Amino acid sequence: MPFSIRLDDNERELVNAYAKLHSISVGEAFKQALFDKIDEEYDRTVFDDAYREYIESGEKSRPIEELFEESGL
């Protein structure tokens, strides 16, 4: 799906420099940035949900050393 983005001269220079530095096209630079941002937000949402569930469960964490001892490590 093609799209266009309006950039001022400074933004355009920055994007072109970034793409050149990584030997990718400007389009690929935007695509990577978009999907990196989506991935980060998704991961954060999953973490926030899991952490909220953990807190609401009332469970308590324990030191990793206890797990190692129980596992014979």
How is this structure best described in words?
The protein has 73 residues and is mainly alpha-helical. It has one domain (9-71). The chain is 73% helix and 0% strand. It contains three helices and no strands. The protein is elongated and about 60 Å long. The mean pLDDT is 95.
Entry summary:
The protein has 73 residues and is mainly α. It has helices spanning 9-21, 26-57, 64-71.
List keywords for this structure.
73 residues, mainly alpha, elongated
SSE arrangement:
Layout: H1 9-21, H2 26-57, H3 64-71
Domain module tally: 1
Strand segment tally: 0
Unreliably modeled segments = none
Beta-strand content estimate: under 5%
Helix content: over 70%
Q: Specify the number of helices.
A: 3
Structural class: mainly alpha
Query: How would a crystallographer describe the biggest sheet?
Result: none
So what's the overall shape? elongated
Quick check: average pLDDT? Answer: 95
Distance between the termini: 52 Å
| Helix-strand sequence | HHH
Give Rg in angstroms.
22 Å
